[in-house]
Please model this.
Amino acid sequence: MQLKALEVREITDYIKKMMDNDIILRNVRVKGEISNLKYHSTGIYFTLKDEIASLKCVMFNEYGKLLNFTLQDGMSVIVTGRISVYERNGTYQLYAQSIQSDGIGALYFAFNKLKEKLQKEGLFDSDKKKPIPKHPKKIAVVTSPTGAVIRDIITISRRRNPTVDILV
Model:
């Protein structure tokens, strides 16, 4: 017997219902560092991350207006909310209902410490920077050699400069 093929929306809807009915995922507290923070007319969008993983988050205005502090990239927080599926693109995310500050995150602190060290070495000084050529002869790209990203980069680069050498 062959399995019935499901539409994308059907499987996404099924996964969403499973997550929405999960007792743990309906009310969860997650600790991490804020990154990619964006304020939008509908709410606050950010990524919560630690050393290993990341989780997309949204806090809609009805909850965002209750915050008594300003969120910042690098801030360590504890977010309370529910995990569910954003059906439009089939990804799961944390729908935040409250956020508690937990200080400055370790990742952000380490980043700033490294940045400060490199600044003291003068590596950010203008006189040490090489100008970016208007028409580069060679471009190095750090990405998967088989993904859509590299194909797009090659296509657009060749269209704009057919003689450019691309190193992956």
The mean pLDDT is 91.
